[in-house]
Amino acid sequence: MIEIKNLNKAYNLGEENGCEVLKGINLTIHDGEMTAIMGASGAGKSTLLHILSCIDRYDNGEYLLDGELIGRMGDARMAEIRNEKMGIVMQDFALIEDFTALENVMMPLDFSAKKRRKKEKRNMALEALEAVSMKEYAGKPVCKLSGGQKQRVAIARGLVNRPEILFADEPTGALDSVTSGEIMKLLRTLNEKGTTMVIVTHDRLVAESCDRIIKIVDGRVQDIA
Ligand SMILES: Nc1ncnc2c1ncn2[C@@H]1O[C@H](COP(=O)(O)OP(=O)(O)OP(=O)(O)O)[C@@H](O)[C@H]1O
């Protein structure tokens, strides 16, 4: 499904604060896999995840998604791919605290190229909340939820478009070990139902519960376990 060849990415090269972040990444992710991306702080994990999830662009190399070359695409097609195929769970939830769980989960549907009636969007959001066992909290403002509940809502928002692949940046980073275990169980259940998962994590236990671990060291893939 995902094939990355000799991919490079730098920020502000030539400037004082410039840096080369990804330096020739090669990797393949197959349909149905649950993959962890590990590496020290600053190694380039989030940068890689943002490129994989079509939020950010790479400088050179190749990124093929289902055989389609991402690099030469215009912004509109990239947004379309993101909407059609991908779900994204951002670091630290990135939820709107004053909005209800339901309103947060419905948001990606408002940005989708596919026009849907409000009722259909609401039903899709309720279904996503049900998939993470949060349907009964649909009407609660996010600021009134616990950390684990917020993470579930963030996952529901990532799932609402029924993506083929879900990208999650530190989905357990802000959680205690029990809640973290529950979230990983939930992600595994969703994976078993067919969603490919790519998870950035610092936590070895979380990584070991995935099918494989890709370790990024200084912008390169050091090993794939
Ligand atoms: N938008 C940006 N502009 C300039 N530099 C950036 C930008 N985003 C990231 N960087 C730099 O790129 C490097 C890699 O950052 P990245 O966030 O990908 O690392 P990470 O492995 O995810 O780190 P962490 O585990 O701390 O989240 C860091 O040195 C960071 O300062």
UniProtKB/TrEMBL annotation:
Signal sequence extent: none
Record key words, sorted: ATP-binding, Nucleotide-binding, Transport
CDD domains to which the protein is assigned, alphabetical: ABC_MJ0796_LolCDE_FtsE (cd03255)
InterPro entries per record: AAA+_ATPase, ABC_transporter-like_ATP-bd, ABC_transporter-like_CS, MacB-like_ATP-bd, P-loop_NTPase
Domain (ABC transporter) ranges: 2-224
Name recorded for this polypeptide: ABC transporter ATP-binding protein
Family: Belongs to the ABC transporter superfamily.
One protein family per Pfam: ABC_tran
GO molecular function: ATP binding
